[in-house]
Write the structure tokens for this entry.
Amino acid sequence: MDLDKNSPTRVLSTYEVARALKELPSWRERHGALVCALEFPDSREAVDFLAIVAEAAERQGHHPDVDWRWNTIFLSTTSHDVGSEITLRDVALATLLEFAAADSSAVAAPQRHQDVHLGIDTRDPA
């Protein structure tokens, strides 16, 4: 683990992630990643936003996972090289994309990210 406070690969604490998310209203934490769902008026605008995501990722040297579903873009960023944890570079990329989304026709749709937990052959179904 990188101990340099300003290192982009420093893993953030739960508290630091929560503080960062206060400045990122479109984003949520899910299973060691920052996630965001953005809805657009139509597919064309969603694709245009994908080009912005690609440019931001190249400039940052950090690439989110992207899922495009007609007019909705699902984004997820985590740092795989440090054990799929949230780092400063994830927050930096999410911040950049938050600003880009605010300048577009995007509407945040956090309810579109859903968690499904399955317990198969478990003694503790909870």
Summary: Residues 41 and 103 are 14 Å apart (CA to CA).
